[in-house]
Structure formats: C-alpha cells, structure tokens
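Students often ask why we bother predicting the structure of a whole assembly rather than each chain alone. The short answer is interfaces. A chain on its own may look different once its partners are present, and contacts between molecules only exist in the joint model. In this exercise we take two input lines together and write out one structure for the complete complex. Read the inputs first and try to guess which parts will touch.
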Amino acid sequence: MSFERLMRPWSGPLFRHLPAASESDPLDFQFAGAGRTNRWNTPGQPTLCLAGDEGVMIAEWGHHCAINRSPELERRAVERAMFRFEVSLDHVLDLREQAVLDVLQVASPTSMSPGRPPVLSEASPLLRQSWRLRWRFPTIPRGSSWRSFSKSCQPTPDASSTRSLLPMYCAGSELPSSTLRGIAGGGQRLRPDRAHPALRKAVGGTRHSWRWPSNLWLAPSGFTG
Amino acid sequence: MIAEPAGRLRPAELRRDFDLSRERMARLIDVSAKTIERWEERDGLPDRTSGRIRLEFARLQEIRTLGLMVYTPEGFRLFLQTPLEELGGRTSLQAIEQGAVELVIAALAADYEGLGF
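Now the answer. The structure tokens for the assembled complex follow.
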C-alpha cells in the first residue's frame, strides 16, 4: 500500500511561544531542531515542535526548564509571548494507524520512545529525509500549574497515551523557513498565562492562517513526556 | 545565522556582555590579551584581521545576540557559567574555549524554541 492512499487532510490551531522581545517573525523557524536535547528528533534534524493547546505549550517550557536548566536560569529568562496558528494540512499520514505502521515496517507504536526517534526514521528512507513537525495534545487542567502538569507528563508507555502525541512528518528534506516566513507575518498573540511568569505578556497582534506547502505525516508515540 | 557583519563587531561590548576579563576573552578567540586591549581601544577589529579570528568573533557575537534574546543580561552571564548536560557537563564558556561553539548555539536555540526539549 502506498503512502498516498493513507494520507488525510488535517486542520486546527497550533501554538508556540517565543521570547517576547524577539523581533523575529513567529513563523521564523531557523532554530527549530537545532538543539541537542530534543526529545523527538535526532540532533540537527529540522524539526518543528508546536503545541496542541496552551497548556501543553506552558508545560513544554516548564519541562525544558526543569530538566535542562536550573531554577536560577529559568528565573532569568525573558518574558515569552504566545502565538496561535491556524494550520491546514492537505496530506497527513497518521502513524497511529496500524496500516501506516505496516507500510513503514514498524512493529508497534511502543517501539518508539523519546531518545529513540531514529527507530521510526530508520524504518523508511522517506522519513529519514523528512522534515518533522510534532505537537502534543493533552490539555493542562484549569487551575493547575505547569509544574504539577509537567509531572503528569512523565513517560507513560501505555496504549491510552498514544493518542496524546501527534508528531508529524513532512515530505522532502527541504522545508526552508523562508518559505514559511513568506506565507504570513505571524500568529495571534494570546493572553498571558498566570501560571508561569516567563509567559506573561500583553496580548496583541493579528491572526493569520497559513497552509503548509508540502505533505505531512503523523506519527504515534507511547509517551506523553 | 544571526551574526552581525564582521565590520560591526564591538570587542568591548562583547566582552562586557560575556562578563569576561581580557585574558579570558583572549583565550576564547585564541589571541593575546594585549590584542584584545588594542581592539577595544580602536573599537573594532583591524582590517588585516584574519578570517579565522573574524569568524570566531562573529560566532561569539551570535551567541551574545541569541543569548540576550532568551535571557536578561544577568541571566545570559549566568547561562555562560552554568554547567549543562548537553555540553557534557561543561559550562558554555568552557565549551567555547574547547571549540564547541555550535553546541552552545544549539543550547541557546533550545531555550529560544522551548518546545520539544
């Protein structure tokens, strides 16, 4: 079975946050995938991580600060502004589907885990050379802080958690940020979140929609952390 | 990526934001402290400066620019002196001295993106 027959359209909001003082376009992804502590991609692989909702966005920042940085550093991070994007994807391959996994010759979603993203990439030369877009969908409970939420985001390799993570793969080794940058000037700035001082920022800006210029795939994972 | 053109590099400004002595700055770029002093006095690098040194300077400038986007000036200085796991337990300054500038930029890139790390 070919990939084409398994592709589906997808659209919806996605979120990211950036240093508030940054003059960079919110659609500038020049640093995406450049880190070495990425949980969802091999170092250097162009990867765009976006959150499925505001709670995940906050929890991800909290996770990074708690795991990779010190509290002292976290307190000295500048304020961050939150952005919402309306994303429309024409061709999405949902790797939670067994049929897709069969095509990729991946035994099961649980064979993939943070720190082992190459497992899937190795399964297919197509994916190995693909741009990767990931987002996560669990929603932070109202009234809880990112700290309590991030604790609940520890790796839980059970079947139920596979639906909370929807990493995506985009066809082609080249997805230049200049292309994205040229599509829209930015996303919608969101209200400041009271749970995290570093994310407090006055709202403003305008809402934009943009369409991804290429094919994308969804991949499963047995982890939410 | 985001480095300013070499002609606009300001040695004194860079050293101030990195909070370094001339001796330490000299070690980062592999020149003498006296050379750093001369650059600061003339507020720039001489035209005859080698490509290697200009590149080293530009990379430090890139770290500074990115670091000050993510952290307060105080936070950036703390970042430079904090041992990080992704740097093999080294501080950013130690990593720079040992030629691992790209790793430091990658660490700051993670702080800039803040999702997926």
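Check your guess against this: Chain A has a mean pLDDT of 51.
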